[in-house]
Amino acid sequence: MIESEANLLVANPDTFKHRFNIDVHTETEVTRIDRQSKSVEVLDLKTGIRRREPYDALVLATGAQPVRPDLPGIDLPGIFMLRTIPDSRKIKAAAAQARRALILGGGFIGLEMAENLVRLGLDVTLLELADQVLPPLDPEMAGYAADRLRANGVHLCLGEGAAGFERLPDNTLGAYTSRGTMLNTDLVIVAIGVRPDTALARAAGLELGALGGIRVDESMRTDDPSIWAVGDVVEVKNLITREWQLVPLAGPANRQGRVAATAIIHQLNCSADPIYPLAFEGVLGTAVCEVFGLTVACTGPSETLLRRAGQGYEKVYLHPGHHASYFPGAKPIHIKLLFAKTDGRILGAQAVGEAGVARRIDVIATAMMQGARVFDLEELELCYAPQFGAAKDPVNLVGMVAGNHLRGDLPLADWGELENTKALLVDVRSEAEYTGGHFPNAQNFPLDTLRDRLQDLPQDREIWLMCGVGQRAYYAYRLLQQYGLRVKVLSGGMQTYQAWLQTGDRGSARSDVGEYSNARPI
Length: 522
Prior knowledge:
This protein has helices at residues 13-20, 85-95, 108-119, 139-151, 199-203, 250-269, 303-308, 357-369, 374-379, 394-407, 431-436, 471-482, 493-501, and strands spanning 28-34, 39-44, 50-54, 58-60, 64-66, 79-81, 100-104, 123-128, 155-158, 162-167, 173-177, 182-185, 187-190, 194-196, 227-229, 236-237, 244-245, 287-291, 294-299, 314-318, 333-339, 346-353, 412-413, 424-427, 443-444, 463-466, 487-490. A 5-stranded parallel sheet has the order 6-13-7-8-9, with helices on one face. Helix 4 (139-151) crosses helix 13. It is built from 13 helices and 27 strands. Helix content is 26%, strand content 23%.
């Protein structure tokens, strides 16, 4: 997409020298930190000359290195890692001579590589050891991205990892998988993640965390009072779970640099503490990715991580339009919101769609940084014009649904218990929609006729309501609870159930449920 490589380079050594009077030494390797003498040993890679550089304050910004699995044949020509601009040059040159590509890893980088290689005309296969792509998301939300990849010709092999490689007689590569199959390809991209580059820190005896990153305080200082560390090389606290994490994202890294610089200036100048001190308190892990026109964004821990941390939570699903439905071009946004059972504090959010996704996650992430609750989302005053949003923005709506649940105005049923429940399943969509696809054992009571059929509903049995995306089920709940019936709503309707089906075997319902990816947000 970016035609000139020069556009990727925002600065060079001359810029730093002439504009800021900063000396930049490229092709220069720091080989050792001498904490005792407060100096670093340096090797000039152009001349081979070694020297020492003294420091008053030292910042380690050594970043991360791609994970290179110890597999047979991993060093064969045609197998690439993607981390630097020179890496991308090699891949692009190889892709020009290739017909097929294999990508290891279904994270953000793996998905973006898949799209770019498809657009270069390659037949692409993606191998992911987990049962889903995009591990930061929960499976039912990541399923939308998997569907988009398949629709654009990417062959997905989920729950399958690489076991080794060999050069075949026709000079192509054979990739053996953990399931014992062999895939034939012309080039391989290894994108299974990164690990902190802590060699210097480890050799210097600085404290490292259990995840392998450098441990720092809120000013980004290490356990040595003269050494700071920032970026992908450090461990950070998750603001929600308070657990240590590795979060290699550009936004947090930039903020960390600003915090460390401020701390260094105040320490070296022995100045008084600032009125508004800078501190890096942790991360939410807010991230966004686009794959074949589909935007995927998230903030805060997933449901999987909350369970692992022992955090109690509730969840709601919505599928509103990204702007007013009557204005041309409205696209659905699939939203999942996680929040605390006790007080409604927002714990995380995930969203997928073709338009307006990043904006909504940014708003929720901003609210989370302020410790907001779902009730605060209800009250947010956001931009409204029909081509940009609705009078009740999707962010407002998700707060309203979650707030209604916590107030007791909207009891929610658990999709995970759907196939084992003894409750009566009632589908309140129209007869035509019901005939087009429905959950097995669900009875059809169209909303517009529901008031006339109250005598057909049991008083002694719980009723679970479903519709297309959730709103009609809510209307039905309000009606039925006034008549004393015990009712719950399945959040997000059949659109959410369709997403659940993609996460694995959910019983015999798969063949009876129609396609709801284009469900109207009503």
